[in-house]
Design a protein that fits this description.
alpha/beta; 8-stranded mixed beta sheet; two-stranded antiparallel ribbon; 10 helices; globular; iron; tRNA processing; 4 iron, 4 sulfur cluster binding; rSAM_sf; metal ion binding
Protein backbone atom coordinates (compact mmCIF):
# COMPACT_ATOMS: atom_id res chain seq x y z
CA UNK A 1 0.00 0.00 0.00
CA UNK A 2 1.37 3.38 -1.02
CA UNK A 3 0.37 6.38 1.08
CA UNK A 4 1.47 9.64 2.65
CA UNK A 5 0.18 11.71 5.57
CA UNK A 6 1.57 14.89 3.99
CA UNK A 7 1.26 16.21 0.44
CA UNK A 8 3.60 19.06 1.34
CA UNK A 9 7.37 19.11 1.05
CA UNK A 10 10.28 21.46 1.75
CA UNK A 11 11.93 20.73 -1.60
CA UNK A 12 11.00 21.19 -5.24
CA UNK A 13 13.08 18.41 -6.77
CA UNK A 14 13.66 18.52 -10.52
CA UNK A 15 12.51 14.89 -10.86
CA UNK A 16 9.34 15.17 -8.74
CA UNK A 17 6.61 13.22 -10.50
CA UNK A 18 3.96 15.61 -9.19
CA UNK A 19 5.43 18.46 -11.29
CA UNK A 20 5.08 20.71 -8.23
CA UNK A 21 1.30 20.67 -8.07
CA UNK A 22 1.64 19.80 -4.36
CA UNK A 23 2.13 22.48 -1.66
CA UNK A 24 5.54 23.40 -0.23
CA UNK A 25 6.46 24.76 3.18
CA UNK A 26 9.06 24.83 5.93
CA UNK A 27 6.62 23.78 8.66
CA UNK A 28 3.16 22.25 9.03
CA UNK A 29 0.53 24.91 8.32
CA UNK A 30 -2.45 22.95 7.03
CA UNK A 31 -5.54 21.31 8.52
CA UNK A 32 -4.57 17.97 10.02
CA UNK A 33 -6.47 14.72 9.58
CA UNK A 34 -6.59 12.26 12.47
CA UNK A 35 -4.00 9.43 12.18
CA UNK A 36 -6.68 6.73 12.50
CA UNK A 37 -8.72 8.40 9.76
CA UNK A 38 -5.67 8.47 7.48
CA UNK A 39 -4.92 4.77 8.01
CA UNK A 40 -8.56 3.73 7.55
CA UNK A 41 -8.94 5.89 4.45
CA UNK A 42 -5.65 4.64 2.97
CA UNK A 43 -6.75 1.03 3.33
CA UNK A 44 -10.21 1.84 1.96
CA UNK A 45 -8.75 3.54 -1.12
CA UNK A 46 -6.23 0.74 -1.56
CA UNK A 47 -9.00 -1.87 -1.58
CA UNK A 48 -10.99 0.13 -4.14
CA UNK A 49 -7.96 0.18 -6.41
CA UNK A 50 -7.32 -3.55 -6.03
CA UNK A 51 -10.98 -4.42 -6.70
CA UNK A 52 -10.70 -2.70 -10.08
CA UNK A 53 -8.24 -5.40 -11.11
CA UNK A 54 -10.82 -8.18 -10.77
CA UNK A 55 -11.28 -9.89 -14.11
CA UNK A 56 -8.28 -8.20 -15.71
CA UNK A 57 -6.38 -10.72 -17.87
CA UNK A 58 -3.33 -12.05 -16.05
CA UNK A 59 -4.57 -11.20 -12.55
CA UNK A 60 -4.91 -14.41 -10.54
CA UNK A 61 -7.43 -14.91 -7.74
CA UNK A 62 -4.55 -15.69 -5.37
CA UNK A 63 -2.84 -12.34 -6.02
CA UNK A 64 -6.15 -10.44 -5.95
CA UNK A 65 -6.98 -11.95 -2.54
CA UNK A 66 -3.49 -11.17 -1.26
CA UNK A 67 -3.82 -7.56 -2.40
CA UNK A 68 -6.99 -7.15 -0.35
CA UNK A 69 -5.01 -7.56 2.88
CA UNK A 70 -2.18 -5.00 2.80
CA UNK A 71 0.82 -6.07 4.89
CA UNK A 72 3.21 -3.29 3.94
CA UNK A 73 2.89 0.48 3.71
CA UNK A 74 5.27 2.77 1.82
CA UNK A 75 4.96 6.23 3.35
CA UNK A 76 6.59 7.84 0.35
CA UNK A 77 3.93 8.38 -2.27
CA UNK A 78 4.46 12.14 -2.39
CA UNK A 79 5.55 15.00 -0.15
CA UNK A 80 7.47 14.80 3.13
CA UNK A 81 5.65 12.33 5.44
CA UNK A 82 7.82 13.17 8.44
CA UNK A 83 6.33 16.70 8.48
CA UNK A 84 3.00 15.29 9.65
CA UNK A 85 2.73 16.21 13.37
CA UNK A 86 1.22 12.85 14.41
CA UNK A 87 3.55 10.63 12.39
CA UNK A 88 4.43 8.44 15.39
CA UNK A 89 0.77 7.81 16.22
CA UNK A 90 0.15 6.88 12.58
CA UNK A 91 3.10 4.46 12.66
CA UNK A 92 1.74 2.89 15.86
CA UNK A 93 -1.62 2.32 14.19
CA UNK A 94 -0.03 0.62 11.18
CA UNK A 95 2.10 -1.60 13.40
CA UNK A 96 -0.92 -2.48 15.54
CA UNK A 97 -2.42 -3.98 12.38
CA UNK A 98 0.92 -5.72 11.66
CA UNK A 99 1.48 -3.57 8.58
CA UNK A 100 5.16 -2.86 8.01
CA UNK A 101 6.39 0.70 7.51
CA UNK A 102 8.80 2.09 4.92
CA UNK A 103 9.29 5.83 5.27
CA UNK A 104 11.30 8.15 3.00
CA UNK A 105 12.41 11.54 4.24
CA UNK A 106 14.07 14.27 2.17
CA UNK A 107 16.65 15.09 4.85
CA UNK A 108 15.45 18.56 5.82
CA UNK A 109 13.95 17.78 9.23
CA UNK A 110 16.69 16.21 11.41
CA UNK A 111 14.76 16.69 14.68
CA UNK A 112 11.81 14.76 13.24
CA UNK A 113 14.17 11.90 12.38
CA UNK A 114 15.49 11.87 15.96
CA UNK A 115 11.94 11.74 17.36
CA UNK A 116 10.70 9.05 14.96
CA UNK A 117 9.64 5.76 16.51
CA UNK A 118 11.16 2.48 15.25
CA UNK A 119 9.89 1.61 11.78
CA UNK A 120 10.63 -1.29 9.46
CA UNK A 121 12.96 0.68 7.20
CA UNK A 122 13.93 4.35 7.18
CA UNK A 123 15.21 5.98 3.99
CA UNK A 124 16.94 9.32 3.61
CA UNK A 125 17.04 10.70 0.08
CA UNK A 126 20.63 11.52 -0.84
CA UNK A 127 19.94 13.19 -4.17
CA UNK A 128 23.39 14.75 -4.44
CA UNK A 129 26.73 14.66 -2.65
CA UNK A 130 27.76 18.32 -2.69
CA UNK A 131 26.08 21.51 -1.54
CA UNK A 132 25.87 23.03 -5.02
CA UNK A 133 24.49 19.93 -6.72
CA UNK A 134 21.96 19.34 -3.92
CA UNK A 135 20.70 22.90 -4.32
CA UNK A 136 20.39 22.43 -8.08
CA UNK A 137 18.55 19.10 -7.91
CA UNK A 138 16.37 19.37 -4.79
CA UNK A 139 15.75 23.13 -5.01
CA UNK A 140 15.21 23.36 -1.22
CA UNK A 141 13.22 26.08 0.54
CA UNK A 142 15.51 26.24 3.57
CA UNK A 143 18.50 28.57 3.38
CA UNK A 144 20.44 26.22 5.68
CA UNK A 145 19.47 23.18 3.62
CA UNK A 146 23.00 21.70 3.59
CA UNK A 147 23.34 21.87 7.37
CA UNK A 148 19.92 20.26 7.71
CA UNK A 149 20.94 17.58 5.23
CA UNK A 150 24.12 16.70 7.16
CA UNK A 151 22.25 16.78 10.49
CA UNK A 152 19.65 14.41 9.04
CA UNK A 153 22.35 11.94 8.02
CA UNK A 154 23.84 12.22 11.52
CA UNK A 155 20.42 11.52 13.05
CA UNK A 156 20.10 8.43 10.86
CA UNK A 157 23.30 7.02 12.38
CA UNK A 158 21.65 6.84 15.80
CA UNK A 159 18.63 4.81 14.62
CA UNK A 160 18.77 1.10 15.38
CA UNK A 161 16.36 -0.19 12.75
CA UNK A 162 17.15 -0.67 9.05
CA UNK A 163 18.48 2.55 7.54
CA UNK A 164 19.03 3.41 3.89
CA UNK A 165 20.63 6.13 1.79
CA UNK A 166 18.47 6.36 -1.33
CA UNK A 167 20.38 7.69 -4.34
CA UNK A 168 18.42 8.69 -7.44
CA UNK A 169 20.83 8.95 -10.36
CA UNK A 170 20.06 11.70 -12.86
CA UNK A 171 22.38 11.46 -15.84
CA UNK A 172 24.24 14.71 -16.36
CA UNK A 173 23.38 15.99 -12.87
CA UNK A 174 24.70 13.76 -10.09
CA UNK A 175 26.42 10.68 -11.51
CA UNK A 176 30.04 11.83 -11.37
CA UNK A 177 30.63 12.47 -7.64
CA UNK A 178 31.77 9.02 -6.46
CA UNK A 179 34.27 10.44 -3.95
CA UNK A 180 31.80 12.96 -2.55
CA UNK A 181 29.09 10.31 -2.12
CA UNK A 182 31.55 8.05 -0.33
CA UNK A 183 32.42 10.86 2.07
CA UNK A 184 28.80 10.89 3.22
CA UNK A 185 28.90 7.20 4.21
CA UNK A 186 30.78 7.84 7.46
CA UNK A 187 28.20 10.41 8.60
CA UNK A 188 25.05 8.28 8.57
CA UNK A 189 26.64 4.81 8.44
CA UNK A 190 23.52 3.38 6.77
CA UNK A 191 22.79 -0.33 6.62
CA UNK A 192 22.11 -0.03 2.91
CA UNK A 193 22.64 2.27 -0.06
CA UNK A 194 19.87 1.92 -2.63
CA UNK A 195 20.86 3.28 -6.04
CA UNK A 196 18.23 3.69 -8.73
CA UNK A 197 17.87 5.43 -12.05
CA UNK A 198 15.55 8.42 -12.19
CA UNK A 199 12.08 7.80 -13.64
CA UNK A 200 11.14 10.16 -16.44
CA UNK A 201 7.69 11.57 -15.73
CA UNK A 202 6.99 13.53 -18.90
CA UNK A 203 7.51 17.13 -19.91
CA UNK A 204 6.79 19.97 -17.52
CA UNK A 205 7.40 23.69 -17.29
CA UNK A 206 8.93 23.06 -13.84
CA UNK A 207 11.57 20.54 -14.95
CA UNK A 208 14.12 20.39 -17.76
CA UNK A 209 14.64 16.63 -17.54
CA UNK A 210 14.34 14.51 -20.67
CA UNK A 211 14.85 10.82 -21.44
CA UNK A 212 18.51 11.68 -21.94
CA UNK A 213 18.76 12.09 -18.14
CA UNK A 214 17.57 8.53 -17.46
CA UNK A 215 20.51 6.14 -16.95
CA UNK A 216 20.53 2.58 -18.28
CA UNK A 217 20.70 -0.25 -15.76
CA UNK A 218 24.30 -0.80 -16.91
CA UNK A 219 25.06 2.79 -15.84
CA UNK A 220 23.52 2.20 -12.41
CA UNK A 221 25.54 -1.01 -12.03
CA UNK A 222 28.80 0.71 -12.99
CA UNK A 223 28.15 3.53 -10.51
CA UNK A 224 27.25 1.07 -7.74
CA UNK A 225 30.33 -1.08 -8.31
CA UNK A 226 32.58 1.99 -8.25
CA UNK A 227 30.98 3.17 -5.00
CA UNK A 228 31.37 -0.26 -3.39
CA UNK A 229 35.00 -0.40 -4.48
CA UNK A 230 35.58 3.04 -2.98
CA UNK A 231 34.28 1.81 0.39
CA UNK A 232 37.17 -0.63 0.65
CA UNK A 233 34.97 -3.59 1.49
CA UNK A 234 32.73 -1.90 4.05
CA UNK A 235 29.89 -2.13 1.54
CA UNK A 236 29.40 -4.59 -1.31
CA UNK A 237 26.88 -4.82 -4.12
CA UNK A 238 24.38 -7.29 -2.69
CA UNK A 239 21.21 -7.22 -4.81
CA UNK A 240 19.75 -5.86 -8.01
CA UNK A 241 16.31 -5.42 -9.50
CA UNK A 242 16.89 -5.05 -13.22
CA UNK A 243 13.31 -4.22 -14.15
CA UNK A 244 13.34 -1.36 -11.62
CA UNK A 245 16.81 -0.15 -12.67
CA UNK A 246 17.88 -0.50 -9.05
CA UNK A 247 20.96 -1.83 -7.21
CA UNK A 248 21.52 -2.37 -3.47
CA UNK A 249 24.74 -1.98 -1.53
CA UNK A 250 24.79 -3.55 1.94
CA UNK A 251 27.06 -3.34 4.97
CA UNK A 252 29.29 -6.37 4.65
CA UNK A 253 30.06 -7.00 8.32
CA UNK A 254 26.39 -6.88 9.25
CA UNK A 255 24.45 -8.57 6.46
CA UNK A 256 26.93 -11.01 4.90
CA UNK A 257 27.26 -14.13 7.04
CA UNK A 258 29.39 -17.10 5.92
CA UNK A 259 29.35 -15.77 2.38
CA UNK A 260 25.56 -15.40 2.22
CA UNK A 261 23.54 -12.20 2.17
CA UNK A 262 20.78 -11.54 4.71
CA UNK A 263 19.28 -8.39 3.21
CA UNK A 264 15.65 -9.52 3.37
CA UNK A 265 13.20 -8.92 6.22
CA UNK A 266 11.50 -11.32 8.60
CA UNK A 267 8.28 -9.31 8.92
CA UNK A 268 6.63 -11.49 11.54
CA UNK A 269 9.73 -11.18 13.71
CA UNK A 270 9.72 -7.41 13.22
CA UNK A 271 6.13 -7.06 14.43
CA UNK A 272 6.81 -9.34 17.40
CA UNK A 273 9.79 -7.14 18.34
CA UNK A 274 7.69 -3.97 18.08
CA UNK A 275 4.93 -5.52 20.18
CA UNK A 276 7.45 -6.55 22.87
CA UNK A 277 8.31 -2.92 23.56
CA UNK A 278 11.97 -3.89 24.05
CA UNK A 279 14.91 -2.31 22.18
CA UNK A 280 16.01 -4.10 18.99
CA UNK A 281 18.09 -3.45 15.89
CA UNK A 282 18.17 -4.38 12.22
CA UNK A 283 20.09 -7.64 12.75
CA UNK A 284 17.24 -8.96 14.89
CA UNK A 285 14.80 -9.21 11.96
CA UNK A 286 16.98 -9.84 8.92
CA UNK A 287 16.31 -12.81 6.65
CA UNK A 288 18.26 -14.78 4.04
CA UNK A 289 18.30 -13.23 0.56
CA UNK A 290 16.91 -15.64 -2.06
CA UNK A 291 19.40 -16.66 -4.74
CA UNK A 292 17.43 -14.97 -7.54
CA UNK A 293 17.72 -11.56 -5.83
CA UNK A 294 21.49 -11.66 -5.29
CA UNK A 295 23.55 -9.34 -7.49
CA UNK A 296 24.50 -10.98 -10.77
CA UNK A 297 21.83 -13.71 -10.60
CA UNK A 298 20.43 -14.76 -13.95
CA UNK A 299 16.91 -13.77 -12.85
CA UNK A 300 18.02 -10.15 -12.24
CA UNK A 301 15.87 -9.87 -9.12
CA UNK A 302 12.70 -11.22 -10.73
CA UNK A 303 11.08 -13.98 -8.65
CA UNK A 304 10.98 -17.04 -10.95
CA UNK A 305 7.73 -18.19 -9.32
CA UNK A 306 6.03 -15.09 -10.72
CA UNK A 307 4.89 -15.28 -14.32
CA UNK A 308 4.71 -12.25 -16.55
CA UNK A 309 1.44 -11.99 -18.44
CA UNK A 310 1.76 -10.86 -22.03
CA UNK A 311 -1.44 -9.73 -23.68
CA UNK A 312 -2.17 -11.17 -27.08
CA UNK A 313 -2.66 -8.36 -29.55
CA UNK A 314 -4.41 -9.13 -32.82
CA UNK A 315 -3.84 -6.23 -35.16
CA UNK A 316 -6.27 -6.53 -38.07
CA UNK A 317 -5.00 -5.31 -41.40
CA UNK A 318 -6.50 -2.05 -42.52
CA UNK A 319 -9.01 -2.36 -45.29
CA UNK A 320 -8.01 -0.75 -48.56
CA UNK A 321 -11.65 -0.14 -49.36
CA UNK A 322 -12.72 3.47 -48.88
CA UNK A 323 -15.30 4.03 -46.18
CA UNK A 324 -17.49 7.06 -45.59
CA UNK A 325 -17.34 8.47 -42.05
CA UNK A 326 -20.60 9.90 -40.68
CA UNK A 327 -20.51 13.50 -39.50
Amino acid sequence: MEATPSLACANKCVFCWRHHTNPVGKSWQWNMDDPLQIVNSAIEQHLKMIKQMKGVPGVTLERLTEGMSPRHCALSLVGEPIMYPEINTLIDELHRRRISTFLVTNAQFPEKIKDLKPITQLYVSVDAATKDSLKAIDRPLFGDFWERFIDSLTALRDKHQRTVYRLTLVKGWNTEDIDAYFNLFSIGKPDFIEIKGVTYCGTSSTSKLTMENVPWHADVKAFSEALALKSGGDYEVACEHVHSCCVLLAKTDKFKIDGQWYTWIDYEKFHDLVASGKPFDSKDYMALTPSWAVYGAQEGGFDPIQLRYKKERNHHKKSTQSTSIPG
